[in-house]
Amino acid sequence: MTGTRSQTLEPPEQSLQAQAAISLRGIEKSFGAFTAVRNLDLDIASGEFFSLLGPSGSGKTTVLRMIAGFERPTDGSIELGGEMVTDKAPFERKVNTVFQDYALFPHLNVAQNVEYGLKLRKVPRAQRQQMVNDALEMIRLPQVARRLPSQLSGGQRQRVALARALILKPQVLLLDEPLGALDKQLREQMQIELKQIQREVGITFVFVTHDQEEALSLSDRVAVFNDGRIDQVGSPADLYERPATRFVASFLGHTNLIEGDLARQLLGAPGPFSLRPEHVRVAPSARAANDQQASLTATVREVVYTGSCTRFVASTPSGADIIFQELNGASTQPPQRGAEVVLEFDRRHAVAI
Amino acid sequence: MQLSRTAKFSLGAFAIVAMAGIYLPLLLVITNSFNATTSGAFPIQDWTTKWWVAAWHNEGVREALWTSIKVASIATVIALVLGTMISFALARYEFFGKHTVNLLVVLPIALPGIVTGVAFSNTFKHVFEPLGIGLGMLSVIVGHATFCVVMVFNNVQARLGRVNRGLEEAAMDMGANLFTTFSQVTFPAIRSALIAGGLLAFALSFDEIVVTTFTTAPGTETLPIWIFNNMSRPNQAPVVNVIAAVLIVFSMIPVYLSQKLTGDDRD
Predict the structure, then answer these.
(1) N or C: which end of chain B has fewer CB within 10 A?
(2) pTM across the whole model
């Protein structure tokens, strides 16, 4: 008795595997001569907030559309919740999508839009109405039920699109740059709301974005796309602190690429290394380099004030640029343009890539 | 753009002259249908409605009208089916020779009617007649369908370019199968383009004479053919005026409707 119980509590390796909400194996997608996605493997766990991050044209939206069923992979297989769906149509998959332009039906009002999928599933009328009310309550828009999409603001449309997809209780919710059309303030507000809703409903979210800040702040894990391939998959901290490639290091935030002679001089290897600007500081006084610290002299070339901190661009005598950053309001006098400074950083912060 | 007074005046005058050149002869036909003399002498001395009564009771006119309606209706239905299918194929799929197909579909509208007529006449006489299908109603319908297809094709293809494909994807995403998606999303979006294309196709077929002349056989007389055959007969000429007057009014309706329909949901 106890034996069976402990078995259920600790599922064997195999059933952990089966819990993956999405499994992509060897996915290739070409449009004519153009290859959008190359030999891609990816597992997304159930209940995860997973982001596909990359510049435009890197293949992230194509991957999303293949999961939704709008595109058929040229090669490879797609599993959703353990079920092979590679050749299935969108209406045969238990995923729903929030489209970039929301794709709300213009001739249906908000309630009818949200109700659409339930009607197709032949949910009884009374139950349907209750579910629509609940959904509009969840997005805090019960007052717009009778309005047409054209009478809504961008943020309201976005939330209606979200409700319309979530009401169907999909295994996976796909979001294609859903906040791209909103202005910055609204976007940040919606990010918080989105994260809250995801936590409440517990559905796997797959989120496509080109905004690294958005991906880092929302996601449990992020896949960084570069030219049809995934460069690195990991938690936001993994990606930011331990970038695997030059592309990941430079795409997520600012970084210093230290290579060649400078790398040999400072770190004893040709590199390249990635060093985040916030890890470089002005040495308080002339202090000899030791085992942990590396130091160098440079001339400040640019000073960029960004509100919470100030970013400096400095040039070493050999011509390499070093970016460093200081929090504003620190007691020390910030360096001026043209000043010669001694910079130092912990060697452990330089990540070989 | 601001125009000077002189420019405005001369452009206005030019427009009036041009319009008059087009519409005065039409007006003449209508007034002449009420002219009591058979010679069509002008100005009109005696007004009468007897030609209208004669036209109403004319067996030849009735038969020709019925033939024209049948031909135009069937050609329009063929055009709607084929035109819609071709426009979907060309708008939605990539395939080898796509641009050639596009050109081949549109070509019949630019081809002189006489060429189409001769081609069909020869084909039916030398290929189909030995098989038992000679010139007649069928050949007229097929001949008309070649350019009617273009009307539907042009309208539907232009509309498909503007239809938001995201809406179809959204419907399918929420569980609508291909048929439901078409009937609930795609069809409503192209409906007015289909009606407009169909009306234009019908109007085009209804007054066609060149292709009809070559592809028809004795016993199949469309209204334009009947008019053409009876214009030179002095005692039938006034009836011809009546028919022409009726046709002017009736051909305005589909053109007006199709303009209104394609204009309506442009946004």
Answers:
(1) N
(2) 0.75
CB of A53 within 8 A of CB of A224?
A: yes
Domain boundary among A215, A231, A251: A251
Contact of A40 with A60, CB cutoff 8 Å: no
Check CB contact of B188 with chain A, cutoff 8 Å. yes
Mutate to test the interface with B, among A92, A105, A148, A169 (most CBs of B within 10 A): A105
The residue-averaged pLDDT of A319-348 equals 81
Amino acid found at A312:
F
Question: Mean of the pLDDT values across residues A306-317?
Answer: 86
pLDDT value at residue A285 = 65
Quote the minimal CA–CA distance from B265 to chain A in Å. 12
Q: Is B104:B37 a contact under the CB 8 Å cutoff?
A: no
Judge contact between B67 and B221, C-beta under 8 A: yes
pLDDT at residue A314, as a whole number: 87
Tell whether A332 and A265 lie within a shared domain: yes
Between positions 102 and 161 of B, the ones with CB within 8 A of A are none
Q: Are B236 and B181 in contact (CB under 8 A)?
A: no
Dump pLDDT digits (tens) for A231-261: 999 999 999 988 888 899 888 888 888 887 7
Is the ipTM here above 0.90? no
Domains of chain B and CATH, by start? 59-264 (1.10.3720.10)
A112–B contact, CB cutoff 8 A? no
Shortest distance, CA B103 to any CA of chain A (angstroms): 23
Exposed/middle/buried for A259, CB within 10 Å: 0-12, 13-18, 19+? middle
Classify residue A31 by burial, with Cβ atoms within 10 Å: 0-12, 13-18, 19+.
Answer: exposed
CA distance A214 to B235: 86
Token couple for B109: 């509208």
Torsion angle in degrees (nearest 10) through CA of A216, A220, A226, A230 = 160
Name all contacts of B90-98 with Cβ < 8 Å and 24+ positions apart. Answer: B90/B157, B91/B157, B91/B160, B91/B161, B92/B160, B94/A32
Do A326 and A213 have their domain in common? no
What is the residue type of A146? R
The answer, for B22 touching chain A at a CB cutoff of 8 Å, is no
Coil, strand or helix at A258: strand
Which chain B residue shows the shortest CA-CA distance from A101? B166
